[in-house]
TrEMBL record:
It comes from Phanerochaete carnosa. Mitochondrial DNA endonuclease involved in intron homing. Residues 47-133 form the Homing endonuclease LAGLIDADG domain. Keywords: Endonuclease, Hydrolase, Membrane, Mitochondrion, Nuclease, Transmembrane, Transmembrane helix. The keyword rRNA-binding does not apply. The gene is orf139. GO terms for molecular function: endonuclease activity. InterPro entries: Homing_endonucl, LAGLIDADG_dom. This is LAGLIDADG homing endonuclease. The chain crosses the membrane at residues 12-31, 69-88.
Length: 139
């Protein structure tokens, strides 16, 4: 992000930017005063999603891709509203078996088992693992 600022607002802007940089909300900050007395600020912001992203994804350095993970403290994080969002985003109703299905294709088997245990212990929901091949056959 690049901003051109006039002389009168310079001091206040620098104070605000410095405060955000110290708090860690700005990742990169570069300030230049041009010959025409214009202040050029180049910065990179840290959004609130950065923290959430690092909680739910890890970088696979071999493929240079982010992979979705299930945090070990999922039992503390998962709420009824969270389950509703999860179903709306990655789930559907399977009419043939009269069950709700949540797609967990990119998770490891141990992460799926952890989710099953949390759903049972915290919400008394019964969940089982079904392969995507079995789901394709029922449709």
């Amino acid at each position: 992000m690049i901003m051109l600022i006039t002389y009168g607002k310079r001091f206040i802007l620098l104070c605000v930017l410095l405060r955000l940089y110290v708090l860690g909300l700005i990742l990169f900050l570069q300030v230049k005063l041009q010959l025409n007395m214009r202040l050029v600020v180049n910065l990179s912001l840290r959004t609130a999603l950065t923290v959430l992203h690092s909680q739910w994804y890890r970088l696979d350095k071999e493929n240079n891709k982010f992979i979705k993970i299930v945090p070990l403290n999922i039992v503390d994080l998962l709420t009824p509203i969270g389950i509703a969002h999860w179903i709306m985003g990655d789930g559907y109703w399977d009419n043939s078996s009269k069950t709700g299905v949540i797609c967990t294709d990119n998770l490891t088997f141990s992460e799926v088992e952890l989710l099953i245990r949390v759903l049972k212990s915290k919400f008394n929901l019964t969940a089982t693992v079904r392969s995507s091949e079995a789901l394709r056959r029922t449709k």
